[in-house]
Amino acid sequence: GGTVSFISASRRSHMGGQYGLSEDEVDIMTGAIKAMKTTVKDIMVHMDNVYSVPFESTELNYDTMADIMSKGFSRVIVHKGDDPTKVVGYLLVKNLIVLDPEAARPIEKEWLKTPIFCSPKDSVLSLLNAFQGGKSHMAIVSHAPRITEIEIQKALAAHDPHPALRGAARPLGIVTFEDVIETIIQEEVVDETNVQEKKANNIMRRYIQRQLEKKRRRKLQMNALEASMIQRHSTMKNFSMGEIKEDKEDSGIC
Fold it and tell me: Which domain of life is it from (predicted)?
């Protein structure tokens, strides 16, 4: 529109002009104006493309932890059964670092965080206001966000979480706080928390990879030892049978 064109025209020249707007200022102002017309649907990640793990069948062992860490996400959606749209909450990956993969613990309900909820028709700016409430940095998108929220809260309060997310309450996708900020400033957000989480995830991933390699080597050693014992047992058995045969021949027993 005219406002965006005016802002772009106010950009400082590359010759080091003293007046006008910097590149970053123009990008942020342009992004903020565009965000007024940008909807959640425009920036959400559809559920088909969302990485998630099942609540009841996931064991946080070496393989699962390595898979989660390899994705590079700071939050992971948790769903019920085989349907990724039956969301029950999400895990903060950084909280998994304290777990011992050797214990292969199941996901506990108390670890799950509750997202906020929005409609695909909501504007990006309205979602930004919701995120600024500080409740969560992840949003679940559905045509009936209030019903979706109620059903997920009911499921988490139950002994066996089983959200009734059907029809308009069925999740369509997710949006994170970072997605909204990047839409407005039109640049990728890499803050101190992201860097620290990535460092922690990399450390954990390397640790898990080392443990998996040790586990693989132990398995190979055990297989070799088992094969050796079987061979030794077979040799001893053949040797014993040979002695018995010789004793029978010496004693004249037929």
Answer: Eukaryota
Six-digit token string for 10 = 């106010």
For position 211, what pLDDT does the model report? 64
A 10 A CB-CB count for 184 gives 21
Tens-digit pLDDT profile for residues 188-238: 655 545 555 566 566 666 666 666 677 777 777 777 777 777 777 676 666
Mean pLDDT of the 40-47 span: 95
| Chain position carrying tokens 């590149």 | 23
Say how far apart CA 179 and CA 44 lie, in whole Å.
Answer: 8
H helices present in the chain, as ranges: 2-9, 23-35, 40-43, 62-71, 124-131, 145-157, 177-185, 192-251
Q: List the chain domain ranges.
A: 24-189, 191-230
- 47 falls in which pLDDT band (50, 70, 90)? very high
- Pairs from 96-100 (Cβ < 8 Å, separation ≥ 24): 96/60, 96/65, 96/68, 96/204, 97/200, 97/201, 97/203, 97/204, 99/60, 99/65
Task: Using DSSP bridges, classify how beta strands 75-79 and 87-92 pair: parallel, antiparallel or unpaired.
Answer: antiparallel
